[in-house]
Amino acid sequence: MDVAGKTVLITGSTDGVGRYVASQLAAQGANLLIHGRDGARGADVVDKIKRAGQGTARFYQADLSSLAETRELADSIKADHRRLDIFISNAGIGTRNMGAERRVSADGHELRFAVNYLSGFLLAYLLLPIIKAAAPSRIVNVASLGQAPLDFNDVMLTKGYDGVRAYSQSKLSQIMFTIDLAEELKGTGVTVNSLHPATYMNTTMVRSAGVRPMSTVEEGGAAILHLATGDDMEGRSGLFFNGLREARADAQAYDAAARKKLRNLSQQLTGPFMQ
Questions:
Q1: Is residue 106 a contact partner of residue 65, using CB atoms and an 8 Å limit?
Q2: How far is residue 11's CA from residue 42's CA, in Å, rounded to a whole number?
Q3: What's the CATH code of the domain at 21?
Q4: What's the Cα-to-Cα distance from 165 to each of 150, 200, 231, 255, rounded to whole Å?
Q5: What is d(CA 60, CA 58) in angstroms, rounded to the nearest whole number?
Q6: Is residue 238 situated within a structural domain?
Q7: Ordered mean pLDDT values, 10 residues apiece, the chain (275 residues)
Q8: What's the whole-model pTM score?
C-alpha cells in the first residue's frame, strides 16, 4: 500500500513500538495522528516528524483508562478528519505497569482490561464512519502471544488477582474482537487483523515488568507495518499473526459463544458511549 497522503491513527505512539511505526509511516509521506497521555512526549514526536519534512503529524492527548476521554478522542478526530485510512490500536499497559496490585479504571473496570481492550473496542466503533469512508482501509490490533481465556463469572478478576492473567485475558479479548469485527465488516472494504509483534521488545512496558528484552522495536514494528501496509494483506481479515507469520490464537478466540458473551459485556460496559 502506498501510504503517501493517507491518514493514520496510532494509539500509544509517543513511545516504544508505536513511536517507531509512526516515524516509519511518516517517512513514507503519511499523515500521522499521534496519540498519548503525555503532552510533552507527543509534542516531541510531532516535532521530529515535521523536521524530517516528509509526512505530517498532529498530536491528540487522551487517557484511554477513561471511556469519557476515549469518546472525546474519537470526537476530536472525527471533527478534524473525514477519512481514516489506517487505525493501529497499539496503546496498552503491561503486567506490572503502575504496580502489581489490582487497579481499576476511571469507570471502575479492571485497568488492563479497560486500557488494553475496552478502549480500543469503543474507539474502533466510534471511528468506523470515517474508516469506512476511506475504504479500502485497515484496522490493526496489537495483541500478544500472552493470552488467557476469560472467566465470564469474574472478568474483572476481583478474586485472586494476577497481573499476568489480567494482561493475557485483555490481549485475548483484542483477538476475539478482531474476529468478530472482521465478520461484521465483510463487504465494506475494511479489514481487521491482530498480531503479536515480537517477544519482549526493548520497550518501557517490558522493562517495567522486570523482564530482559529479547527483541527490538524494529522487529515488532516491521510486523505491525506488514499488517498495516503489506500488499499481501489486501482483502485478508479476521486473522492473528505471530510476527510476520499467520498463527493460531488461544482456542477461546474461535469459540463463537464466548465471543458473543464478550461482545455483549463490552456493549454493556460502553453502552452510554456507543453511537
A1: yes
A2: 11
A3: 3.40.50.720
A4: 9, 17, 35, 19
A5: 7
A6: yes
A7: 96 95 96 97 96 92 97 98 98 78 95 98 98 98 97 96 95 98 98 91 64 81 97 98 98 98 96 58
A8: 0.94
